[in-house]
Amino acid sequence: MTVTAIPAKRIWPAPAALITLSLVPVIAGAVRVTELSVGAEVTPENARFVESPLPIVLHIVGATLFCVVGAFQFPTGLRRRSLGWHRAAGRVLVLCGLAAALSGLWMTVFYPHPPMDGALMTAFRLVFGSAMALSIVAAVLAVRRHDIRRHRAWMMRGYAIGMGAGTQVLTLGSWAVAFGEQPVGLPRALLSALAWVANLAFAEWIIRRRLR
What is the pLDDT of residues 21-66, one digit of tens each? Predict the structure, then answer.
């Protein structure tokens, strides 16, 4: 059987765009893990991480792999070329996504809240973190029923939420550029929620477009 070569220009744009979007959070996470591993000076900003490093390390490693490896699950050509890789990577993504979501929920509940956040930001993190975990579980249940269409839809929703940190660089960064300071309290919560909602809206648009 002849395998038709798939032009690279049809495969790489989506992964490249997604990895670019997640680049700032990935780099920031790597810096944080390095800081914890070498025993950096304890400050008010990182004290909660130094006192209990496991949740933040799980969150960073899980989220990084989820965003980067997940970017290569979107091109249809890659899935057709190596279905075995797609399935193996999918299992890794489920574990990493759940680790990122559940550790994020744990930190939201048990870590001291940063002074820049407020009650609304805490609520948004609980809502979207729970939605991410439930989306991944729904995707696993769907694929076990061999319902590939719903599996892809739910994984896409979970991935969209997981990519929220990348889009928040744009929403929060726009405020910082406009006003010369980082948003705090209500503006910070609303701009963060806007990033999650925008990602989910884009994911739903892709899902419905494929259904049509």
Answer: 999 999 999 998 998 888 777 877 778 888 889 999 999 999 999 9
Report how far residue 198's alpha carbon sits from residue 204's, in angstroms, rounded to the nearest whole number: 10
Q: Which residue has the tokens 């439930």?
A: 134
Domain count, the chain: 1
Q: Which domain holds residue 72?
A: 8-211
pTM, full prediction: 0.88
What CA–CA distance (Å, rounded) separates 79 from 87? 9
**Is residue 3 in a domain?**
no
SS3 114: coil
Taking a C-beta distance cutoff of 8 angstroms, is the pair 94, 166 a contact?
Answer: no
Other Cβ atoms within 10 Å of 41 Cβ, number: 7
Distance CA 129, CA 123 (A): 10
Please check whether residue 2 lies inside any domain of the structure: no
In a domain, 167, yes or no: yes
